[in-house]
Amino acid sequence: MEMAQVGPKVSIALLHYPVYDRNRREVATAVTNLDLHDLARMARTYGLFRYYVVTPVLEQRILAERIRGHWQDGAGGNYNPDRREALKLLQIVPGLDDVLADLENINNRKVQVIATGACPRKGALSCGELRRTMEEGNGPYLLLFGTGWGLTDELFERADLILEPIKGSGDYNHLPVRAAAAIILDRLLGER
Amino acid sequence: MEMAQVGPKVSIALLHYPVYDRNRREVATAVTNLDLHDLARMARTYGLFRYYVVTPVLEQRILAERIRGHWQDGAGGNYNPDRREALKLLQIVPGLDDVLADLENINNRKVQVIATGACPRKGALSCGELRRTMEEGNGPYLLLFGTGWGLTDELFERADLILEPIKGSGDYNHLPVRAAAAIILDRLLGER
Q1: What is the ipTM of this complex?
Q2: SS3 content of chain B, % helix, strand, coil (to 5)
Q3: Core-most of A26, A174, B103, B173, by most CB within 10 Å?
Q4: A72 lies in a domain?
Q5: Among B112, B164, B187, B54, residue whose Cα is nearest residue A127
Q6: B38–A178 CB contact, under 8 Å
Q7: What is the mean pLDDT of residues B133-148?
């Protein structure tokens, strides 16, 4: 199956900085327990390589490591082995540069960075186009997801590729990042 | 577009009872703040008719109503109008019978109930098959999602249709219900 080939080329990163707040100020958002688990499970389901949680705030990384540790090593791992299995993919790092260095170090190739967001942007690919690109390319591919009110413009400029926003049936485009990530992974890597 | 026709025929219900716990005991799970918001946003994005949160526990319904009230009427509504908009679809009811009575009362037709879950079951439809069924039928359609370790067998027996589980790239089938709901709505109602 093609999925078995594409998933391992793909990683995701959930960025808590730099993202916008509701007033379009650049901020660092707080790590949430649920985002750690939910995206780890999605990553595991679709056979991804790694799931990076990115925050420059040391206390937040310590918190995230503690949550991971509970479900991986402690009583939580025995209580819920599925969660432990998913959290194996999780890496907690200060910045996007750390993600890129990690992936490039392992793969010995430049990472193709793909920015996602809720606003239409010039030159953005559809999920179908990106799916074909990823099937044909070597990767590694890194999908960036923004918390808060989304990734800053700087990240879209820095990205190699931009993915079109998920559209529903109207002009309401306020999916939670967890839902957008699930839908995007399914469109890119799900059974067809 | 076809979506504009199908979405309004479809509602979703998140059941906190009757569902299984990890030891396959029938339990009532707790309402979570995030499930209220996340599924409401998905329902709004895909143009659904209603989003029902079902729990027989009175205190839980009061809690859920209070959360909704905060984001709809109070300071929260002004702070986050997108959230208010989505929560308009939310109905909080004690049982599945209340959901069916509400939908049948409005539509004057029997509801087609569709059960979802993570285990394969005999006679289950693929998302593609259900999509065609819903495009051709009159509805109303109600998709049931289970919290905890999933809907009880009784609900699968009671349902008119059963949807196949979402498969990823392997045998790991532990998506969070929020992610499964997002993927299913996109497969049934998203742009094609």
Answers
A1: 0.94
A2: 45, 15, 35
A3: B103
A4: yes
A5: B187
A6: yes
A7: 96
Least CB-CB distance to A176: which of B38, B172, B191?
B38
Q: Extract the residue ranges of chain A whose pLDDT is less than 70.
A: 1-4
SS3 of A20, please? Answer: strand
d(CA B2, CA A173): 18
Residue A5 located in a structural domain: no
Question: Token pair for residue A38?
Answer: 């939910």
Q: Residue A71 CB: number of other CB atoms within 10 A?
A: 24
Residue A1 has a pLDDT of 45
Please enumerate, as own/partner, the contacts of A20-29 that have beta carbons within 8 Å and a separation of 24 or more.
A20/A146, A20/A148, A20/A149, A20/A150, A20/A151, A20/A152, A21/A148, A21/A149, A22/A148, A22/A149, A22/B80, A24/A149, A26/A152, A27/A148, A28/A55, A28/A56, A28/A57, A28/A60, A29/A147, A29/A148
Count of domains observed in chain A: 1
B140-158 average pLDDT score:
97
Q: Does A23 touch chain B (CB under 8 A)?
A: no
**Residue showing tokens 């539509």:** B107
- Are B86 and B40 in contact by the 8 Å Cβ rule? The answer is yes
Residues in chain A within 8 Å Cβ distance of B38? 176, 178-179
- Looking up residue B54, the CATH number of its domain turns out to be 3.40.1280.10
pLDDT tens, residue by residue, B150-160: 999 999 999 99
Dihedrals phi, psi of A119, to nearest 5 degrees: -105, 140
The range of the structural domain enclosing residue B71 comes to 3-189
Neighbours of A97 (CB within 10 A): 10
pLDDT at B1 over 70: no
Contacts of B34 in chain A (CB under 8 A): 34
The token pair at B138 is 């009159």
Mean pLDDT of B106-133: 96
Contact list, B119 vs chain A (CB under 8 Å): none
> Distance (Å, rounded) from C-alpha A154 to C-alpha A186?
27
Q: In terms of Cα–Cα distance, which of A129, A182, A131, A191 is closest to A12?
A: A182
What's residue B4's pLDDT? 46
DSSP A7: G
Distance CA B71, CA B175 (A): 28
Report the C-alpha gap between B95 and B54 in whole angstroms.
6
> Is residue A166 less than 8 Å (CB to CB) from chain B?
yes
